[in-house]
């Protein structure tokens, strides 16, 4: 399975509010584009933090036409270069530095009016590339207008899930008292916790583990709204969502109100679960999670909810069972979707290392760099792939004791020259020629 280009995943995450909409009202596209262009992003490969409306719009149309493949960047032959004359470049840069809020259209109009360039000879894209090259591209727009916020609720269960992490209690883990983190996925329409678990960390791996269980239990959401943190922007998580058709949407930084219902669930969990928990009975992380899951299924999901007009989260969720997307045939490939790929150099003894353990791969790969297909939750290597994502062998845990008595394969011996069975002599060689000359009878 080929990996999705990281830039394509980033672009899809930017398009989340657009890609997740089945239909746009008249004028709504431009409104959403302006909102997306006004946000800050951690753009791969650059220190810039903003994107232009036209750029996002181009990505949107490319995604609609070709899906994730349309978002994969195509290399430019003239990348990093400008074909504009040196004097024209200097004039464009000076115009932007004099007034950073000048748009590309205003810069072009200024240069044409001043006679620096002929009318219609300067393209917008040429100015845009030059400004980007010098990190002078800036988005217009007022920041003084207040942002309009409205309460909303998803029409059906499974339409919107929220994901977030809450700090949990300290419990014994591997013989030490360690802090835990509650990773939760929450359905907007029903207030049902599709899955939640206390984890030893808040990494992408912990989040993926919770997501996998949620998918198995509650189906596939249309949208997944998460924080803007590094764990939620991991390429593995974005790839899983892209392949399952889940629109992964990242909240804007410092805007927790985008997940208000989940924040309210966190407060309920602190008050009703952690507030009632007897810490003396918790001797492991498994103990803590077993009590969490029992409380969720027996208490929280079956209690009337004020935001549901007195219905329970479970009853509201069950109302929409027919509308919720199921995994269907994709359930068989779910494990494969959650596998990770890591590069490793194969040692001379045909082994590779992963998580402090050694695995044997086909001996022919010795000395080569390969891509290991690993199950990060079980911490085992499943197989080996080449750069094209094609399987090139299995990986098994190293058994050094068994190798003591195992027969080694030896290279095939080089074929030896032998006289043909017809009695004809073999071709000449230096040794035979020297021998014949040395033993040649005297007088010949």
Describe this structure in words.
34% of the residues lie in helices and 17% in strands. The protein has helices spanning 6-14, 16-19, 28-37, 53-66, 86-98, 104-113, 124-133, 204-218, 235-244, 260-274, 285-298, 313-319, 334-337, 400-405, 430-438; strands at 160-173, 176-187, 193-199, 223-226, 247-250, 340-345, 351-354, 357-360, 369-375, 380-385, 391-394, 396-397. A hairpin with a 5-residue loop joins strand 2 (176-187) and strand 3 (193-199). Residues 139-151 and 417-423 have low confidence and may be disordered.
CATH-level-2 architecture of the domain at 160-333: 2-Layer Sandwich
Give me the strand/helix succession: HHHHHHHEEEHEHEHHHHEEEEEEEHH
Remind me, CATH topology of the domain at 160-333?
A: Nucleotidyltransferase, domain 5
CATH superfamily of the domain at 160-333: Ribonuclease H-like superfamily/Ribonuclease H
List the strand order in the largest sheet.
Answer: 3-2-1-4-5
Quick rundown:
The protein has helices at residues 6-14, 16-19, 28-37, 53-66, 86-98, 104-113, 124-133, 204-218, 235-244, 260-274, 285-298, 313-319, 334-337, 400-405, 430-438; strands spanning 160-173, 176-187, 193-199, 223-226, 247-250, 340-345, 351-354, 357-360, 369-375, 380-385, 391-394, 396-397.
Keywords:
Nucleotidyltransferase, domain 5; 444 residues; OB fold (Dihydrolipoamide Acetyltransferase, E2P); alpha+beta; 34% helix; 17% strand; 12 strands
């Amino acid at each position: 399975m080929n990996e999705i280009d990281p830039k394509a995943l980033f672009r899809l995450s930017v398009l989340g509010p657009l890609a997740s909409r089945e239909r746009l009202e008249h004028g709504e596209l431009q409104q959403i584009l302006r909102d997306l262009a006004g946000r800050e992003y951690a753009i791969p490969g650059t220190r810039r933090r903003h994107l232009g409306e036209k750029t996002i719009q181009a990505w949107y149309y490319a995604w609609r036409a070709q899906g994730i493949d349309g978002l994969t960047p195509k290399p430019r032959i003239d990348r990093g270069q400008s074909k504009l004359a040196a004097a024209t470049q200097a004039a464009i840069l000076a115009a932007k530095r004099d007034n950073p809020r000048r748009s590309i259209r205003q810069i072009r109009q200024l240069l044409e009016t001043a006679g620096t360039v002929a009318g219609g000879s300067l393209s917008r894209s040429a100015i845009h590339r030059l400004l980007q090259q010098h990190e002078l591209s800036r988005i217009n727009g007022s920041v003084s207008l207040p942002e309009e916020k409205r309460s909303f609720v998803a029409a059906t269960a499974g339409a919107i899930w929220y994901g977030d992490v809450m700090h949990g209690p300290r419990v014994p883990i591997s013989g030490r008292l360690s802090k835990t983190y509650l990773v939760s996925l929450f359905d907007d329409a029903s207030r049902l916790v599709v899955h939640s678990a206390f984890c030893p960390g808040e990494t992408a791996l912990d989040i993926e583990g919770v997501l996998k269980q949620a998918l198995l239990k509650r189906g596939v959401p249309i949208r997944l709204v998460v924080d803007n943190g590094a764990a939620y922007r991991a390429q593995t998580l974005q790839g899983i969502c892209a392949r399952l058709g889940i629109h992964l949407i990242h909240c804007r930084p410092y805007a927790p109100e985008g997940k208000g219902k989940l924040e309210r669930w966190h407060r309920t969990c602190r008050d009703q679960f952690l507030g009632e928990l007897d810490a003396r009975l918790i001797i492991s992380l498994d103990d803590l999670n077993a009590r969490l899951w029992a409380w969720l299924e027996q208490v929280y999901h079956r209690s009337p909810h004020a935001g549901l007009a007195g219905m329970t989260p479970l009853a509201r969720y069950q109302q929409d069972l027919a509308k919720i997307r199921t995994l269907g045939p994709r359930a068989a490939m779910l494990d494969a979707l959650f596998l990770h790929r890591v590069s490793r150099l194969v040692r001379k003894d045909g082994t590779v290392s992963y998580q402090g353990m050694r695995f044997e791969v086909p001996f022919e790969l010795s000395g080569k760099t390969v891509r290991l297909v690993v199950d990060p939750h079980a911490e085992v290597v499943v197989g080996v792939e080449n750069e094209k994502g094609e399987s090139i062998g299995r990986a098994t845990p190293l058994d050094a004791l068994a190798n003591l008595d195992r027969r080694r394969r030896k290279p095939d011996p080089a074929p030896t020259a032998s006289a043909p069975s017809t009695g004809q002599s073999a071709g000449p060689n230096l040794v035979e020629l020297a021998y014949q000359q040395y033993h040649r009878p005297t007088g010949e």
